[in-house]
Amino acid sequence: MERLNKASPTVKINAQQKKELAEIDSKYAAKIAERELLVKDELKKASEKGDFEAMAQLEKQLSSDRKSLEAEKEEKKEAVRQGNS
After folding, report:
1. pLDDT value for 85
2. How far is Cα 85 from Cα 83, in angstroms, rounded to an integer?
3. Has this prediction a pTM greater than 0.85?
4. Cβ-count burial 11-47 (b if 16+ within 10 Å, e if not)
């Protein structure tokens, strides 16, 4: 346990930081949900047309968008944890 704390010490966060972290989580959850709704609507249209290539491309796009939004969210959360909000 001591070695773990030396390698990456536990960061204490205050109430303001907790609030900011919760806001970031909420904001990015909404962004991801909005993106999913848009892409799923396009997926439905492509499915009705039988355009499987477009469906595969949309699935890749959704996955990529989700990953980039998650990475962006984690960067912002880390900035808050470091006190650079």
Report:
1. 55
2. 6
3. no
4. eeeeeebeebbeebeeebeeebeebeeebeebbeebe
Per-residue tokens: 54:
């477009």
The answer, yes or no, to whether residue 8 has pLDDT greater than 90, is no
Dihedral, CA atoms, 36, 41, 46, 52, nearest 10 degrees? 20
Tell me which long-range contacts 18-27 makes (C-beta under 8 A, separation of at least 24).
Answer: 20/80, 20/85, 21/77, 21/80, 21/81, 24/73, 24/76, 24/77, 24/80, 25/73, 25/77
What angle, 0 to 180 degrees and rounded to 10, lies between the N-to-C axes of helices 52-81 and 15-49?
Answer: 180
Q: Are 69 and 30 in contact (CB under 8 A)?
A: no
- pLDDT tens figures, 12-34: 889 999 999 999 999 999 999 99
